[in-house]
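Example record for the data management plan.
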Amino acid sequence: MQNRIRDLREDRDLRQSDLAEKTGIDQRTISNYETGKTSPDAYALIKLADFFGVSIDYLVGRVKYDYYTNEKKVQAIDRIQKQLEELKKY
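Corresponding structural encoding:
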């Protein structure tokens, strides 16, 4: 889970202090999540998932891909359709 939080934060070019300011979660707490020293409680998971626009399952590593938003679902379907088209050529 710690890597997902860090990766999502870095993908958005945010520092830990930026994420702390935007979510109301202390910067040291975010650091502890990212290093695996502590795990987010339910309240923090909801705040982080809502902020990043991902499912909690994705955030905690239960699923490999996040299909939380319709946009992401459409992108995934498009990617799969393209792969199928390529396979049909063979």
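Summary line stored alongside the record: Residues 2-64 form a domain with the 434 Repressor (Amino-terminal Domain) fold (CATH 1.10.260.40).
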